[in-house]
């Protein structure tokens, strides 16, 4: 028998939690339980290891339970598949990580996570930049004209063009991010931003901000989209704070 | 699940859901690429580690070279010599990758909180 | 056409959701690999190695550190 852990919860209203859980079911229809240490609880259900199938339906059922809990309680979502064998081990885990859990729960209280991915058409974008740079570079064509004699110079020429294009692309991404984060400061959002995650995903970002400021964030994204019709801005949320649990479990 | 969580999804680029899934897949593989060494893969694991470091340094050299050329202070002769060197380095690297059966994606190591090496 | 937009929104939502629940969140230790090659997500392999004190000790000894750090990166 194992205990599948769904979330770590700031359990300030134990009665409310118990009545909420009594109306809910675990992933395979089993009942949900809590393991509590002072103000922090782990929501668990008893399930056989073998029952835990890693398919899309199960993972989504797991996420659905976390989502429902999050509507009523501040929580730290667990990754799908996190199990501990006994209640005793869960208690030990809670005890060892208590300060970290506490700190992270405070951080995410009343906040939601939002995800933003900015897609581009890499070929088109590079082509546009190449055209722009060619008209700009032409006056100083000395390096272009001059080096044509050897295969090595050709090679350098090609590399140089790639290098300049890449630099331009990075500058462009920095610019889009700077515009965006500039508008974001007044929302007091915590953000984690990755540049150039893939050739197509220029920006992959997650934000943590007050639940009631969702509409303002949507507006910021829409403004950026209008500014950059050549890109696709996809904003999703609100999510439980999956990307904002900075915990090194002990 | 009937609801969607898309708050905004606009723009002029036509991306199919297959394209998008593919990008998610790439995000995952980047995330998953970490170095694991064990008795079974000691040879290829070590080759991967060494080649990764060589590739990192090669790319740094290349980048620095491009900056110098861009600076405009090098003579044509110097640029040509540089080109020869960089081209040979790149060719050699391709050879080694082929020999050890490694792709560009293999030559990246996830450094945990530091992110990707390349 | 309108339906396509709705379908796509749903699919992106699912992708984002799975990405979160399978690769983010607090992790004890474990290794879940998914492939997003198709719209229906296919799991390549699942290895749930949680639960025993032994595992926890291994984790402390550095075995699962990569996993944990990965979890904290971004």
Q: Summarize this, please?
A:
Chain A folds into two domains: 2-109, Alpha-Beta Plaits; 112-244. In chain A, 46% of the residues lie in helices and 24% in strands.
What do you see in this structure?
Helix content of chain A is 46%, strand content 24%. Chain A has 250 residues and is of the alpha+beta class. In chain A, strand 2 and strand 3 form a beta hairpin. The relative contact order of chain A is 0.15. The model of chain A has no long low-confidence stretch (mean pLDDT 88). Chain B has 118 residues and is mainly alpha-helical. Chain B contains three helices and one strand. The longest helix of chain B has 30 residues, at 42-71. Helix content of chain C is 51%, strand content 15%. Chain C has helices at residues 2-23, 53-60, 65-72, and strands at 31-35, 42-47. A two-stranded antiparallel sheet of chain C has the order 1-2. The interface between A and C is large, with 41 and 35 residues.
* Number of E-type strands of chain C: 2
Helix content of chain C: 40-55%
Shape of chain C: rod-shaped
Helix content of chain A: 40-55%
Order of helices and strands of chain A: EHEEHEEHHEHHHEEHE
Mean pLDDT of chain C: 50
Q: Multimeric state of these chains?
A: heterotrimer
Uncertain runs of chain C with pLDDT below 50, 5 residues or more?
Answer: 30-74
> Tell me about the biggest sheet of chain A?
5 strands, antiparallel
Terminal CA distance of chain A:
23 Å
Structural class of chain A: alpha+beta
The N- to C-terminal Cα distance of chain C equals: 36 Å
The total of helices of chain A stands at: 8
């Amino acid at each position: 028998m194992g205990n599948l852990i769904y979330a770590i919860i700031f359990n300030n209203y134990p009665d409310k939690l118990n009545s909420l859980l009594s109306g809910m079911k675990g992933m395979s229809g089993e009942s949900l339980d809590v393991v509590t240490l002072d103000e922090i609880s782990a929501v668990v259900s008893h399930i056989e290891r073998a029952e835990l199938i890693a398919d899309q339906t199960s993972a989504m059922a797991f996420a659905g339970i976390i989502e429902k809990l999050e509507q009523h309680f501040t929580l730290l979502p667990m990754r799908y598949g996190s199990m501990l064998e006994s209640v005793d081990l869960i208690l030990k885990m809670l005890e060892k990580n208590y300060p970290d859990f506490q700190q992270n729960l405070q951080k995410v209280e009343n906040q939601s996570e939002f995800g933003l991915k900015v897609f581009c058409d890499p070929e088109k974008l590079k082509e546009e930049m190449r055209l722009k740079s060619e008209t700009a570079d032409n006056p100083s064509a000395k390096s272009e004209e001059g080096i044509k004699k050897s295969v090595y110079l050709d090679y350098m020429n090609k590399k140089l063009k790639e290098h300049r294009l890449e630099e331009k692309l990075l500058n462009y991404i920095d610019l889009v991010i700077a515009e965006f984060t500039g508008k974001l400061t007044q929302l007091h959002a915590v953000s984690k931003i990755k540049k150039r995650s893939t050739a197509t995903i220029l920006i992959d970002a997650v934000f943590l901000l007050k639940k009631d400021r969702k509409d303002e964030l949507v507006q910021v994204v829409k403004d950026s989209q209008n500014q950059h019709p050549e890109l696709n801005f996809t904003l999703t949320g609100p999510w439980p704070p999956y990307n904002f649990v900075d915990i090194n479990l002990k | 699940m009937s609801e969607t969580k898309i708050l905004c999804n606009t723009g002029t680029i036509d991306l199919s859901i297959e394209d998008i899934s593919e990008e998610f897949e790439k995000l995952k593989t980047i995330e998953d690429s970490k170095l694991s060494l064990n008795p079974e893969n000691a040879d290829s694991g070590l080759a991967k580690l060494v080649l990764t470091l060589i590739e990192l340094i090669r790319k740094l050299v290349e980048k620095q070279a491009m900056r110098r050329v861009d600076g405009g202070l090098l003579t044509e002769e110097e640029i040509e010599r540089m080109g020869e060197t960089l081209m040979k380095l790149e060719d050699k690297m391709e050879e080694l990758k082929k020999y050890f059966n490694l792709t560009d994606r293999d030559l990246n190591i996830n450094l945990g909180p530091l992110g990707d090496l390349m | 056409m309108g339906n396509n937009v709705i379908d796509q929104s749903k699919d992106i939502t699912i992708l984002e959701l799975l990405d979160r629940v399978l690769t983010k969140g607090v992790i004890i230790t474990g290794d879940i690999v998914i492939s997003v090659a198709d719209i229906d997500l296919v799991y390549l392999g699942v290895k749930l190695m949680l639960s025993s004190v032994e595992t926890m000790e291994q984790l402390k000894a550095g075995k699962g550190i990569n996993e944990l750090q990965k979890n904290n990166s971004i």
